Amino acid sequence: MGSRLFTMGVLTMASLSAAPPHPRLFIDASDIPRLRALATQNRPDAFGNNPSKCWGKLKSKADRFVTAKPYSYTVTMPGREGTPGQKWTYTLSDGRPPPHDEFSHYPPWTAMFQERSDSITTRLRYLLLAHLVTGEDAYATRAKTIVSRLCAWDDIWTDRSYSSGIPCLDTGHAAVWVAVFHDWCANTLTEAEAEIVRTALAEKAVAPIAGMIEKIAPYHNFTAVIATGLGVGAISLLGHDERAEAWLDLAIRRMRLYMDQQGADGGSMEGPGYGTYAANQLADMLWALGGIGRADELSDHPFLQSLPRYCISLLDPGTKKMPCFGDGGPTTGFINLMRVLALQGNAEAAWYCREVRGLGLDSPRAFLSVDASRILPKQPDFRPTACFRDIGYAILRDGYRPESLFLAVKSGPPKARIGHNHYDHGSFLLRFGDEWIGWDPGYRSYFDPPRRRYTTGTFGHSTIVLDLNDDYIASTAASTPGQDQVNIAGGRILEFFGGDRLDFVRTDNTAVYNSAKKHVMDLFRREFLYIKPGIVVVLDDLRTPQPHTFSALLHAPGSASLKLGTNTATATAPGAFMDSWFFTAGGVSLRAGLSPGNGAYGPWLAATTPSAKTARIITILAPRLNDELIMNPGFESGMSGWRPRNMPGFRENHVIDTDVSHTGQASARIDNGGYYYSRQFPVEPGTTITARWWARCTAAKGASSMLYYWKKGKSFTRAKGPAATDTEWRQYELIDVVPEGTEEVCLALQFFGEGQCWYDDVEITLDRDRTVRSIPTTVEEVVPNRLFLLTRDGVRHLILIGAGEAVFEGHTYTASGTLAWFGLSDTPEAFANDAGTPTRDGRPIPKATGKWDRP
């Protein structure tokens, strides 16, 4: 890769016709000595990597693939609408995978070609890198065996049952790595072998993609995947196929069109989940173009120019993840593409990569691309609070402080209909501590109707529904006209303010409830005021032609439980509490329930108004850290506060048993194999920690217990405890001294054997006092539905709802907007949502410092 990775000059047509020698994809011959030297370097680089140790791990995986049995994949394809599934299996051979016409709704090929722990393309990546670095033929020979199988398949590399015979995602992925094989292993192939590979690459992938790519929706990740297959395949074929240059031009044009369709003011239309998937392909395309001097044909695009700001703004400093609405969940996104931008000299992209631990040498791409002499991180000097109107995201945050609340709001896109979006305008995600305590159900369920409704419909998101009742809750309709949102486009971010002490966003979600056949909503305007570091005020103004009840929904994560008061609620999760207050004329009624699958997505809360044509709902949210060492010690609240082994084949082994318990009404049972991990909690090194629990087991062997010690998000050591061996209830104890370097600890109660094991009544004690970090915020309704006093950590704030004046402690406060904030500190400061000037006793109060963003 070296100095030629991003040569910006465009090669002449004559030099393109000559075509650079192989290898030319991602690296050239001059890079090989550098990579081989890197593999032997035993001193840490600037990012703390020991290259030789990292290379040893990569080579070890390649060695396993050399001797592994032929790649094989088995999956149970889910039936439509919750009907029984069907097993599908394939072992790589000269024959293409079997059809699945009766299950044409499911794509089993996807797992075979996407880059997982083991897949066809994963094996090629590791084998090809090992061949490049070592020069040993065994790796190339094994890779050739895989590619030869693909070349022997009849017709194009696509799942005919799923894609109707046209190229699909698998075609793009296969094209990339067959192209890299042809490029990197050129000197190991006879001319006849090379011609077989080139013909297959051209006729089974590149030419078919070129013939249909113009028909694909340009915004979609599908475009990025097949455009990359087309482009990388074409680069590999330059000088061998007279069509290659035209194919490459087409790939570049379609990739630019893909970027044209993303957010006009930045960001990915499909969010950090599918947006990252597409960006990974774009990264490969940009990287490959750099090798032939054409990177500037993509790198000058506004989407790439704005990407660092988008990624940094969305990156939550507490969890190092991005919030994701629609299909996806909080994720560490865009690493590959940001790493490529860092190699181009973008210091902010480099800083982002360092923050998300994207500069390790732990993958073939990273080993090739992480050059510590060229990647120079620099923390951005811009305020990361931001809104991206065209995609409908707003980020309210307290700079780069991980200890503060982080709020993401969704309202939009205003026009673009994005297939992976949900009916979630006006909803939000909220992180505090290490917990996403204000939750979103994430990726949709495609095949189970109740879960599909909850994951895609309005009911599963923290926004507004109308006339919530038992029939509505029991429904499986993704969208119910008259009660739900019926449009995935139409929400709008109207105004945005980012400041030192507070952030604000105003959204309009009226249009998404109305259709051509049914007008339901005259107004749904939702505003969020974030008072830093830890209070959010939500103001909903609603108006309809006919009377309705309006329910403000609030969702907590799967690990949480809810406790309701008259107009208050507390969500309790392992990492945080969130206290909530709800106010409306006539008073709210609160109702809570579990999401489908016995709370698989977490509990929900509805704060409902009386029936009327207009309503104003005021919601105040104040999270705080959960200082409990053990949450839900007797499993009376299900698995809340505990993490089971949540992987296929083990998930179903974990049962909350209400027939067997030591005390109370429940215990946690493990059938044959699994574990329960407690929450991780902070503890100082040198502390003596004592864990006690009651257990019984039907097997003499298989149970175990551990204290896991964590540092920087990873377990680095553990203390082994006693194993349950008795069929009767018995208490067990584990005492240990917390080792140096520990930041957090958790308890693991495990069973891997034949039989059953029950756990109950867990307790943990420490020999030293801990600092209490969880002081609740107080909320006083000074004037009903009008003036509120909020106190957090001794700091007082006044919230005034509605234009006009209100009296507090002998002073008259006035504002002209519908929502105003007054800071009651020694240095008065105020904010009004109409950008007016609030007053106290007739005198103007200095406005909160910050910047408005209006269209």
Summarize this, please?
The protein has four domains: 2-369, Alpha/alpha barrel (Glycosyltransferase), CATH 1.50.10.100; 387-625, Beta-galactosidase, Chain A, domain 5 (Distorted Sandwich), CATH 2.70.98.70; 642-766, Jelly Rolls (Sandwich); 778-853, no CATH class. The chain contains 20 helices and 38 strands. The strands form seven sheets. The protein has a nine-stranded antiparallel β-sheet, with no helix packed on it.
Supply the CATH superfamily name of the largest domain: Chondroitin AC/alginate lyase
Order of strands across the biggest sheet?
14-15-16-19-12-11-10-9-38
Q: Tell me the number of structural domains.
A: 4
**At the first level of CATH, what is the class of the largest domain?**
Mainly Alpha
Find the count of extended strands (DSSP E, 2+ residues): 38
Shape: globular
Average of the residue pLDDT scores: 94
- Helicity, as a percent range: 25-40%
Alpha carbon gap, first and last residue: 43 Å
Indicate the CATH architecture of the largest domain.
Alpha/alpha barrel
CATH topology of the largest domain: Glycosyltransferase
Radius of gyration: 29 Å
In DSSP terms (H or I, runs of 4 or more residues), the helix count works out at 20
The quaternary structure here is single chain
Strand content: 25-35%
Uncertain spans: 1-17
